[in-house]
Specification:
The complex is a heterodimer. By secondary structure, chain A is mainly α. Chain A has helices spanning about 1-40, 50-65, 70-90, 100-125, 150-170, 175-185, 185-190, 195-220, 230-245, 250-270, 275-285, and strands at about 140, 145-150. Chain A is about 75% helix and about 0% strand. In chain A, helix 1 (about 1-40) packs parallel to helix 5 and helix 9 crosses helix 10 (about 250-270). The longest helix of chain A has about 40 residues, at about 1-40. In chain B, helix 2 crosses helix 11 (about 260-280) and helix 4 packs across helix 9 (about 210-235). Chain B has a two-stranded antiparallel ribbon. In chain B, strands 2-3 form a two-stranded antiparallel sheet. Classes of the chains: A mainly alpha, B mainly alpha.
Amino acid sequence: MNVLNGLNGLNMFYLIQLLNAVQYGLLLFLLSSGLTLIFGIMGVINLAHGSFYMVGAYLAFWLTKLTGNLWLAIPLAVATSFGIGLLLETAIFSRLYQRDHLYQVLLTFGLILIFEELRSILFGDDVHGVAVPEIFNYSIPLTDILSYPAYRLFVTAVCLAIAGLLYLVIHRSRVGMMIRAGNSNREMAASLGINIPLLFALVFAFGVALAAFAGAIAAPISSVFPGMGNQILIICFVVVVIGGIGSINGALIASLAVGLADTLGKVFAAEYSGVAVYLVMAAILLWRPQGIANKV
Amino acid sequence: MTHIALPRGILIAALLLLALFPIIGTTFYLQLGAKIMIMAIFAMSLDLLVGHTGLVSLGHAAYFGIAAYALALASPKYDAANLWLTLPLAMAVAAIAALVIGFLVVRTAGVYFIMVTLAFAQMLYSVFHDTKIAGGSDGIYILVRPALTIAGLKPLDLEKPVEFYYVVLIALAAVHGFLNRVLHAPFGRALAGIRMNEARMRSIGFPVFAYKLVAFVLAGALAGLAGYLAACQFGFVNPEILAWHQSGIVLMMVILGGMGRLHGAVLGAFAYVLTQEILSSPALLGAYAKHWQLAMGGLFVIIVLVLPHGIGGFIEVTWRRFSYRHAKASGANDP
């Protein structure tokens, strides 16, 4: 009986790690799906995508403090970020579409500096916590000593719902059809009468809003801190490289794989856990340099 | 855009100017000058990839940083390391890192290449940041600068600002000369061909992968030279030296000066470091100096939107326009 209990505890430990991996992976998916769509459709490499994650998290932190309610703060943060996305697209990014990637890198690198410095001016350089909302502020007991926080499960469920919604929008709706058309051949889609500037602006703002949403909903788990956007951005690049540029399905598989690699790395080789994710990427580069979902 | 070399006269004049600078420069400005020239070497090594081979690397700080770490780890704690041993060692470590990473990244192109170079640089960063190697996230000190000895004599003492300045200047001139030679050799012409039309080079029969990989390793080794000198100068190495911020900054220098021109990279290094000094100087800007990154970021955005070919390109276009007008005006006066 004792042995069984021990085994059970060990299995539960792995269950918790698996849940964490899935939660982290789905969060990465929210960010990298926007990133990969912006690459695939507009051909823009956007280093500032991580900054939008940070913007979402800090807006959630600030609005929660203001309104005292995370459920109000998240929609407000997402709406604000959508507005910021529209503004940035029309003012800056629309001028980048025809330019070399090099200049896109530089301009968006400049945007990162601006966002980080504004964050430092407005909120300072300290780490801030965001309280977990009352309804989810408990843990689900798994064994005598192990338990799992309910809020993490909630985040996993929401991310799953959004991933499903994204799939439906892209594969089953008219807008999704336009997005797919723009993704596979921009010029052809434009000549068929699709309003490309409007589509681009909407996709960009949508990507920004998704990133901000990810930041906002993860804020109670990860807290908000300087440089949080850049850290996750590079992991998202790894996801996009593994999944293949422009592929939402690839991004989903790659996000989960990266989430799993990162979590397993932390369990088995804590010091070198940062390397695990990149080893997966190296293997993919040797095997399929174009990413798992893209052909040739 | 073909490789544009400056007239030899201007190069010699610039070299003389840099060589004579210590006559008027105080210690502070000598150190600033050395720092700029180190960044110029770093920027030139990146320009070999970005401007001449068409490979936009966003992880070049990895090789700069790993060479700095090589010096830090190879130095005795309270004694001077031997420059003739540690410098080749540091450059070799950087070159080997570039070979391993290059073998994986060179098979990708375009946006992939940018992301993958960045990702592998970040992998090295996480190794030095998360493990106990070389002090972990706290970094490691190099208390005594390496000794430059020739046959038992010490012609240049790296501890003295003036003499360190000259060592860096010699390195800068040597790297410029070397890269200039490389770019005009058949190897360099092949790289230019790859940049302009890779498919055609491949169909002619050039082993494009090998050429790119060699360029990547060469650029890594030269970045290692810059990293070695930077570690000498600051006497301190921490993971930030190979963070992606550093990679972004050196890329900015290359663009700022106008890529595809070696002197452009040098010009870019001067322009960037001096701009940073001005923007972050409390004496000039008071309380705003603390937030210099805001202005720097804004500058990046404006330069990309307004000066598509960097400062170097801007000067060339203006010069060409001027001389064209001049020629037309004098031609009109001829009977």
